[in-house]
Amino acid sequence: MKVVKNVLEMQKIALKLKLSCKTIGLIPTMGALHEGHLSLLTRSTLENDVSIVSIFVNPAQFGPGEDYLKYPRPFKKDQNFCKKNNADYLFAPSVKDMYAESYLTYIKVEKLSEFYCGKFRPGHFRGVTTVVAKLFNISQPNNTYFGEKDFQQLAIIKKMVNDLNFPVNIISCPTIRETDGLAKSSRNVYLNHNERKDANKIHLILKKTANKIQTKQITFAAKAVKFMKISLLKIPKMSVQYAEICDPFTLCSMKKNIKLPARILFAGLLGKTRLIDNIEIRK
Ligand code: AMP
């Protein structure tokens, strides 16, 4: 596995690979890699000639007062993880190389990036779409892999790719969870012992709500949301940012009768740690 830290070098390698008709799979990450990232990499190695994992803690997607500086950066460990799991390239550019002092260009997907997480993290998705577009131009992927764990992000990236005609397939991969149900996340290390013990309740509550909807015990969205919020607020130190039932394609929040398939989206703070999760409600 080759580690590439320079943007132009990565782009040259990618263009050469393309010229020799190799298919490229890209897995964009911020590092502190875990089994969630691994599921994306494994799928890429099965579906492409070459897999590139990018690790870049993207300052443009963090707001003031967020965890940009304290975000975990175990680079050596991540490097071994990528090597062991058959990545061909680890692309880890510096902030200076990605965003020169004179940098001015940003991409924003309107509307979709303004609600749910966008409301609580203004500018976050603008940072995400900008860096993802740059990574596409640098790595020239045929296929790129994103987790359903970040469901709104996935919808926004699909929209950007469609609207801007990027010649790339977006492959969505299911959320990988701890054995107790908590969605794996690089931010879970922020949870203290008691918070970690309680964190799995989020998934259990989302699952219970989905089940009540599927079995038609609840048919009204407002009632499902109320049930969810009351249950979530029983978790100590939990503050709910949003818990919504939405259309899985448009992400529009359902207010009256729930139409299936639907998706439950959640974000909240457990103590000081922001957690997100979502679950599918099938027909
Ligand atoms: P991050 O490093 O958190 O920016 O995530 C990089 C990619 O990995 C994104 O596409 C995430 O959605 C995906 N990802 C993160 N956690 C998980 C998980 N638990 N299961 C599946 N994919 C994940």
Blueprint (SSEs and pairs):
Blueprint: E1 2-4, H1 7-19, E2 24-29, H2 35-47, E3 50-55, H3 75-84, E4 89-91, H4 95-98, H5 117-120, H6 124-139, E5 143-147, H7 151-163, E6 169-173, H8 193-214, H9 221-232, E7 238-246, E8 262-270, E9 273-281
Parallel strand pairs: 1-4, 2-3, 2-5, 3-4, 5-6
Antiparallel strand pairs: 7-8, 8-9
Helix pairs in contact: 6-7, 8-9
Residues 29-30, 36-37, 39-40, 146-147, 149-150, 173, 175-176, 183-186 line the site of adenosine monophosphate.
Task: Give an overview in words.
This protein is α/β, with parallel strands linked by helices. 38% of the residues lie in helices and 19% in strands. It has 2 domains: 2-173, Rossmann fold (3-Layer(aba) Sandwich), CATH 3.40.50; 186-281, Pantoate--beta-alanine Ligase, Chain: A,domain 2. The protein contains 9 helices and 9 strands. The longest helix is centred in the last third of the chain and has 22 residues, at 193-214. Bound molecules: adenosine monophosphate. Adenosine monophosphate is lined by residues 29-30, 36-37, 39-40, 146-147, 149-150, 173, 175-176, 183-186.
